[in-house]
Structure formats: structure tokens, C-alpha cells
């Protein structure tokens, strides 16, 4: 099987050394949260905003516990050892990767909210003739196309770049790699939800491995999301180009009203998670610069 960020064990043949003491309760808690998130990603039967929101909430709890774990003197002493510097640097690079993808997810949600708010405001006013109406709908669809293109580029860029080699490491590092992997997997679900059914092409190793690792997960192709319904409704209106097509306009408006709080909720969850990712990176930097 090809290596994938979703399955860090596929990158390495790892010999895991336990931490030099009995298992701390925080370690057990992180492992339990990881297990729940992996199971949720593998068996989730929908790509709804509620399911993604729950996963983002789970990631917040996970990274809260990770940061507490990094504050333990034992953890800091273990990772601060000179021979472990390479592993800490690897974890730092991973933290940058998570912040970058989270930032992209925040941007595409903001752009999605802005273009949906604009078309919703225009349809509520119902000013102008058919030509202006068609232009505004077309502007929305162009914005959505641009957002999807950016998401597809990001998903393709999330392919693994790790080398296949044997690395002896400590259990703590393996667990933090798993945290990064499951976080990337949830970001993939979120970005795929926003983009809709046209996911990356078959050349994308990330998408192929994701499908192999999560055969039970139903992708966005299998469920029409709220965003897809809005897109379809507006595309239908564009074909008629009639500003007085009240039935279809009302349908599109109702869909936009339902979509608005969903996007807002995802934005808030992402912002909370982004702050936690920053805390984790700061903790790792403190250990690295010790």
C-alpha cells in the first residue's frame, strides 16, 4: 500500500520504545481520543456539517490533551534529549503543515460565506432585470469554481512526502505522528465537503490511499450536501435567467438560509482548533529550543 498521512505506520518500520515510566493518564486519554476519531473517519456514513463539526470538536479535545502532555516534565525531558532532536524537528514540521492546511480551510470557508451572503442579499432585494440577475448568479458560480480549484490543489498537495526507512523512535513521537495524521484526515473531509463531488483526479495519491484506508466511509460523491444543493439550484436559475422565477428563487433562498448557520458553525470550530494548533507548536518550539 502506498504511504499516506492517514496511516503513518505505512511510512516507517518503527521500533517503539516506551516512555521511561508507567503510562500517564494523559497518554491513555490521547490514545482513546485518537481511536474514536479514527473510527469516526473510517465509518462515517455522511459528509454533513454536523458530522464534520463533531470531528472538529473531537480534534479540539485531542489537541488540548496533547498540549497538556507536552507540558509534562517527563515529556519535555524525553524529547529534549540531543538524540531526539531530529524527531522534534519532524514534529515541528508537521505542526506547520497542520497550521497551513487549517489556514486554507478557514480561508475557503470565509470565501464560501462571502459569496453565499452576496447572492443571498441580491436575491432578497430582487433589484435589476434578467441580465443583472444572471450576472450575479454567474458571479456566485465563478466564485465557487475558484474555491473548488483551490481545494483540489490543496488536497493534491497533501500527499505523503515521507521516505520509506526504518526509524527507531519513542512511543511519544509515534503518538504525535498519529495525531497529525488523524487531524489531516479530518481536514480532508472538511475540504472535500466544501468542494463537493469533484474530488482530485485519480493521479492523486492522497485520494487513492484515503479510499483504500476508509472503504466504509461515504464520500461527498454519495451524499448531496447543502452546498451542492445551493449550487444546483443557482445553476438551474442561471439556465432560465428569469429574475421573476419566484418558485425557484424561493427554493434557492431557503437553501441559502439553511446553509448560513452551518458555515458559521464550521468557521467557529476551525478558529478554536487553529488556536489549539498554535499552542501545540509553541510547546514543541519551547522543547526544541530548550
Describe it for me?
The chain is mostly helical. 73% of the residues lie in helices and 4% in strands. The protein has 9 helices and 2 strands. It has helices at 25-43, 49-71, 73-80, 85-125, 130-157, 171-195, 205-213, 226-240, 246-288; strands spanning 12-17, 165-170. The two termini are 38 Å apart.
Write the layout of secondary structure elements.
Layout: E1 12-17, H1 25-43, H2 49-71, H3 73-80, H4 85-125, H5 130-157, E2 165-170, H6 171-195, H7 205-213, H8 226-240, H9 246-288
Parallel strand pairs: 1-2
Keywords: Coiled coil
GO biological process, one term: shoot system development
Biased composition (Low complexity): 40-53
User: Care to count the β-strands?
Assistant: 2
In terms of structural class, how would the helical and strand content be classed?
Answer: mainly alpha
Mean pLDDT over the residues: 77
What is the succession of H and E elements? EHHHHHEHHHH
Neighbour order of strands in the largest sheet: 1-2
Distance between the termini: 38 Å
**Main sheet record:** 2 strands, parallel
The tally of domains stands at: 1
- Envelope shape: elongated
Supply the number of helical segments: 9
Roughly how many Å is the radius of gyration? 22 Å
Helicity level: over 70%
Low-confidence parts: 1-21, 161-168, 199-223
Q: How large a portion of the residues is in β-strands, by DSSP E?
A: under 5%
Protein name: DUF241 domain protein
Coiled coil: 220-283
Keywords: Coiled coil
Region (Disordered): 1-56
Brief write-up:
The protein has 290 residues and is mainly alpha-helical.
Amino acid at each position: 500500500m502506498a504511504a499516506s498521512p492517514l496511516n503513518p505506520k505505512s511510512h516507517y518500520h518503527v521500533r517503539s520504545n516506551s516512555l521511561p515510566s508507567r503510562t500517564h493518564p494523559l497518554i491513555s486519554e490521547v490514545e482513546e481520543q485518537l481511536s474514536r476519531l479514527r473510527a469516526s473517519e473510517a465509518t462515517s456514513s455522511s459528509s454533513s456539517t454536523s458530522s464534520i463539526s463533531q470531528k472538529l470538536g473531537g480534534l479540539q479535545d485531542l489537541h488540548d490533551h496533547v498540549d497538556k502532555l507536552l507540558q509534562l516534565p517527563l515529556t519535555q525531558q524525553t524529547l529534549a534529549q540531543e538524540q531526539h532532536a531530529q524527531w522534534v524537528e519532524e514534529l515541528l514540521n508537521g505542526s506547520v503543515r497542520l497550521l497551513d492546511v487549517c489556514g486554507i480551510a478557514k480561508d475557503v470557508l470565509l470565501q464560501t460565506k462571502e459569496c453565499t451572503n452576496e447572492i443571498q442579499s441580491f436575491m432578497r432585494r430582487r433589484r435589476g432585470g434578467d441580465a443583472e440577475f444572471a450576472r450575479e448568479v454567474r458571479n456566485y458560480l465563478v466564485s465557487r469554481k475558484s474555491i473548488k480549484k483551490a481545494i483540489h490543489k490543496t488536497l493534491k498537495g497533501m500527499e505523503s512526502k515521507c521516505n520509506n526507512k526504518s526509524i527507531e523512535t519513542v512511543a511519544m513521537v509515534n503518538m504525535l505522528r498519529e495525531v497529525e495524521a488523524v487531524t489531516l484526515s479530518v481536514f480532508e473531509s472538511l475540504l472535500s465537503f466544501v468542494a463537493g463531488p469533484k474530488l482530485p483526479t485519480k493521479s492523486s495519491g492522497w485520494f487513492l490511499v484515503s479510499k483504500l484506508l476508509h472503504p466504509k466511509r461515504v464520500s461527498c460523491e454519495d451524499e448531496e450536501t447543502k452546498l451542492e444543493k445551493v449550487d444546483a439550484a443557482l445553476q438551474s436559475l442561471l439556465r432560465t435567467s428569469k429574475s421573476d422565477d419566484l418558485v425557484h428563487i424561493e427554493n434557492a433562498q431557503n437553501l441559502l438560509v439553511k446553509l448560513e448557520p452551518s458555515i458559521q458553525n464550521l468557521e467557529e470550530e476551525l478558529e478554536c482548533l487553529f488556536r489549539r494548533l498554535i499552542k501545540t507548536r509553541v510547546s514543541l518550539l519551547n522543547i526544541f529550543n530548550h
